[in-house]
Amino acid sequence: MLNLTRVKERVPPHIHGRETNVTIMGDMILALLPLYVMAYIYYGPRSAVLGLVGAGTCLLADWLCSLISGRKINFYDLSPLVTGLILPLAMPATVPYYIIITAALFAIMIVKYPFGGTGYNLFNPAAAGFAFAVFCWPQQMFRYPVPMQSIPIFGEITATIAESPAYVMKLGAVPDIDQLNILLGNFAGPMGATNILVMAACLLFLVIRNVVNWRIPLCYAAAVVLFVLMFPRTHLTGWQAVLYEMAAGSLTFGGIFVLNDPVTAPKRNIPKAIYGAVAGTVTMIFRYYGGFEQGVMFAVLLVNAFAPLTDRVYETIIFHVRRIRFAAENSENKPAKQTRNSQA
Amino acid sequence: MQQKTPKISRQSRRAIRRRNRRNLRLALGGLFEKNPVLASGLIIAPVVVAAVSLRTATALSIAMALICIPAIIVSGLISRWIPYWVTAVTATAVSTAMIIPAYLCIAPLSVHIFDALGIYFPIMAVSSLPMAYISGYRRRPRPMRWIILQAVCLAVGFAAVAFLMGGLREFIGYGTLWGFPLNTPLKITGVQLPFFGFILLGFIAAGLQGIKVLIHYIDRKKRDAQEAKTS
Fold first, then answer.
1. Least CB–CB distance from B190: residue in A98, A114, A132
2. Rounded Cα gap, residues B192 and B48, in angstroms
3. CB-based burial of residue B229 (10 Å sphere; 0-12 exposed, 13-18 middle, 19+ buried)?
4. For labelling, which of A97, A310, B72, B169 has a CA lying 20 to 30 Å from the CA of A186?
5. Do residues A255 and A280 lie in contact, with contact meaning Cβ atoms separated by under 8 Å?
6. Which residues on chain A are in Cβ contact (under 8 Å) with B203?
7. CA-CA distance, A83 to A29, in Å (whole number)?
8. CA A144 to CA A163: how far, in whole Å?
9. Shortest CA distance to A81 belongs to which of A98, A109, A61?
10. DSSP letter at A118?
């Protein structure tokens, strides 16, 4: 006789993947840490403090919003930490603390929680927070310090400011940076978005850990490369132009850490590939014709809006294709109708 | 011989009182329950784009009052006798004609007021607000006093939202109120852009829904307490 008192009732889903919020976000945080190490080397301890301020603000805002919406605080939810760590890396190291705090509060309290909180947001909070900061303080957001100088943690910033390669290329000129420094990230730019070699290693780690689906960054990079090869905007051509475009601004950083958000990206494989390709194309269009020197965050917000639609359209197409295939298979397997003559 | 005035029965008096209470509730709905911007979603564009300071909010409120109230009153008057499309055209003609007096009232506010309002001042003449009420008046004609009260309440409801939006955006964006500086430590100029107007309007609408839920909850608690007492 079955002892029903020992049977436990569980809420579905009853089949889980290996990945959880803790493992996915934990791996993201691990992948972001090397960028903070590089930022510390280039800009001093201020970069670490900016990261702490961003992460702390996002975490506190997340807890506050949880309480306001009547939920228990989930201390295992690391997604606000990821948002808080991404925001300062896309900004200059001289950015004032109030900009980080405002962008973090906007990301969590306006972009994330009104849409349902963790797992339900329609737009990437970090991209939205960055875009809001750009609209409010465009001068401070695109003023980059020259690396290898220690920037004071508090007080007046007295760093040497230089134009970023993205701005120079927007004017049609070629940045005066040699290729070795481009690869090492030793030029003025967003705090954590200049080191393309480190970012490539982080991407490899994330793909191996199954946090990032390889289709999105591959199609994104392919779209960017094709666009640059077909329509170079400086006198550089070929792979030199590609290298400068990929290294300038937050193009690569956005394509790895912002575009691959598991909540806002499509869930199916082919829509992921389309999503990545469209994001790459839109990013380059914003770069070439937009008002700001960088366009990746705005492109991410735009493709986030269409991500659920791509999933829905793909599933509708697959449903009809399967129906047609099933009908065709059924008609092949059906035995031939017996007529009166054949029976006789 | 004097004619005796017919006695109104108690039932009829009760029905008249109930009808008046319903009409009053419907008329006052424009202030809160059926606020034209927050609840009905009408005339959102001027509030979101143009209500960026107290001055522009005042201008929009004056424009709304002078342009839309006569149109609503006229449509309430004529809708039961003439076809819908004629009522709609007449209401639009009346609101377009009222642009001139509205212009004269708004001009003294500031030299640059019409630059700030842009297209959203003349667009009030073709707003969806009078159209939304024409079919209602046609289906169920109401006494003139209730139509006037409803039109005034709609204008006051719109003004309340416009002032709230304009005041908040001017305070947060420029650190001023009606042009007077307030020495705020932080100015976030991005709130002047339309995208933040939509976000702020959404939060205010959510706040209104929250207040309605709270009022409904308090009413229900009172009713339950009364029922418990009587039983």
1. A132
2. 9
3. exposed
4. A97
5. yes
6. 114
7. 10
8. 7
9. A61
10. T
Residue B199 sits at the chain A interface (C-beta within 8 Å): yes
Among residues B163, B159, B145, B201, the alpha carbon closest in space to that of B65 is found at B159
Place of tokens 């100015």: B187
- Tokens (6 digits) for A23: 């493992």
Distances (CA, A) of A331 to A164, A319, A343: 64, 18, 22
User: How far is the C-alpha of A257 from the C-alpha of A217, rounded, in Å?
Assistant: 10
The identity of residue B83, as a single letter, is P
CB hemisphere CA count around A257 (13 angstroms) = 35
Q: Which of B115, B149, B127 is nearest to B47 (CA)?
A: B127
pLDDT tens for each residue of B90-125:
889 999 999 999 999 999 988 888 888 989 999 888
CB distance from B207 to chain A under 8 Å?
no
pLDDT tens, position by position, B162-171: 999 999 999 9
Instruction: Name the H helices within A137-268.
Output: 138-141, 165-170, 179-184, 196-208, 215-230, 238-247, 251-253
Asked if residues B192 and B173 have their Cβ atoms less than 8 Å apart, the reply is yes
With a cut of 70, which residues of chain A have pLDDT below it?
A: 1-6, 16, 333-344
Query: B202 CB near a chain A CB, below 8 Å?
Result: yes
Helices within B110-189 (DSSP H only): 113-117, 129-139, 144-174
* φ/ψ bin of A249: left (φ > 0), alpha (ψ from -120 to 50), beta (otherwise): left
- Quote the CA–CA distance of B68 and B155 in Å, as a whole number: 8
Q: Is A98 in Cβ contact with B189 (below 8 Å)?
A: no
* ipTM value: 0.81
* Structure-block tokens of residue B229: 């007492």
From CA B155, how far away is CA B31, in angstroms rounded?
8
> Before A13, cis peptide (omega within 30)?
yes
Tell me the pTM: 0.86
